[in-house]
């Protein structure tokens, strides 16, 4: 064999040996390129708002670009299905609210993904109560006064929701069911908070339960009248507005909560790195302050606790859906 030929073979063998002996060294550390957080709703809503706050903090912690991509449609299921099909490498993440675990309860026959098994829970980062608001031209000053009107002439009133299966939708359905007019008072479905709130301000519909991020500016401007909030205690942004429990609905406590997921089978080391970054974000004073001013409460749960919380919430939502007889038309 010629010397040049032998040298070439020795070089090739050495290259193969080094590649096999040091696979870890050849892999760049995560993240080595931009990370995308898919938000399955339109820009400007509560989910989008919290996601963008978190993305800014993750970008600082991970030292890598983190962008938010809106993939709206089908009550969030289009974006969720996209993430479920994505590679579990940590570069495609998913941020959504409680509607993620509500959708399977409503769309069992048509949903294109498994909300539990097709995703890796990473962290829960926030929760927020809803504002129960009416058009200010409606002459009511309390939940009790609205209840009386609904019972007297239910056909005259319409509730509205910004998304089928959202926390606001379930809250409205729960309320109407408990009042006893769930069959008589319709809940109109809108594609997003903006058109729903505009129609409520315009007097075309009667009431809404909606996250503070989208409703609070209208309440502060006097364009909507807040009757109650759905949290366990009064919100400091609306100190004069009672809770639903204070209004006589003893077990009425409802939140829209927000969390970060990835596709199923995300490597544990990447999950832990993202979880640590999310925890760090929630612990920072400016993140807490910004969330609070938007009407949210910073609320961190790690991957294990978030998974258990999801299971418990799924059971609770299933009970609300069955009691209120919410069905897909």
What do these coordinates show?
This protein is α/β, with parallel strands linked by helices and 329 residues long. The chain has two domains: 35-128 and 257-324, Bordetella uptake gene, domain 1 (D-Maltodextrin-Binding Protein, domain 2, 3-Layer(aba) Sandwich), CATH 3.40.190.150; 129-229, Periplasmic binding protein-like II (D-Maltodextrin-Binding Protein, domain 2, 3-Layer(aba) Sandwich). The chain has helices at residues 3-21, 23-26, 46-62, 77-84, 99-106, 143-152, 167-179, 193-201, 212-220, 268-283, 285-293, 303-324, and strands at 35-39, 66-70, 92-97, 119-134, 159-161, 187-189, 207-211, 225-229, 255-263, 297-301. Helix 3 (46-62) packs across helix 10, helix 5 crosses helix 12 and helix 7 (167-179) runs parallel beside helix 12. It is globular.
